[in-house]
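pinning this so it doesn't scroll away 📌
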Amino acid sequence: MSRAPALTVTASHVERARAMAPGTVTRMRDLSVLVAGASGGLGTAIRHELRWMGIRLIDARPPHTETGRASRPLAGTEPRLPHGLEPDAVAARVLAAVVDDERDLPSGAFG
C-alpha cells in the first residue's frame, strides 16, 4: 500500500507568506497559509490515513460567515469585510455535504 506524501507547514512558509503580502493582517496571512496546507497535501494524507477507519473528511472552506468574530479583533482595528453568510446557512450546507458524501466544499459551494 502506498502512502500519501506528508506536507508540513513550517515557520519558513509563514514568513514567505508575510513577505508576499505586506501591510495586511498578520494573523489572517498565517491562517491562510495553514488553510492552504490543510486543503492541499495534508488533507489528502489525513483522508488516506482515516479512510480505513471509516472516517470521512470534508474539506469545507466557507466564505466569511457572520459569527461576530470580525467585530472583535485580537489586535488593532477590525477588518473591513463585506456582509458574510449566516451561520445557519453554512451549517446546513455542511450537513448536506455529509448526507451527500461530498469531499470538497470550496467557498463557491456555499452560494
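📌 and the second one:
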Amino acid sequence: MFSNTTGSANTATGVSSLRFNTTGSDNTGDGVDALFSNTTGSSNTASGYQALYSNIYGSSNTASGYQALFSNTSGFFNTATGVRALVLQL
C-alpha cells in the first residue's frame, strides 16, 4: 500500500500487494502483486499471484488463484476461482 492516501480498512500481504491504492477501502490483497493497480476500487478480495492485477476502480470483485481476473479494470461483482480464471475479463 505504498501510495495509500485516504483508503481505509485495507489488508495487503505479499510484495507489492495493493501497490497503487490511494482511496480504495475495504480491500484485501493476499499474494505478490495482488490488486497491484487498484487505486479507487473498494470491497475487492484478491488471493494469489497477480490476482486482480489490472483492477483500477472495479469494486466488489473476488479473485482467487494465479492471475485470476488479471485484466479486470472496472468490472463489478465478478467472482473468479482458479488459475487464470476470467483472465481477459475487462
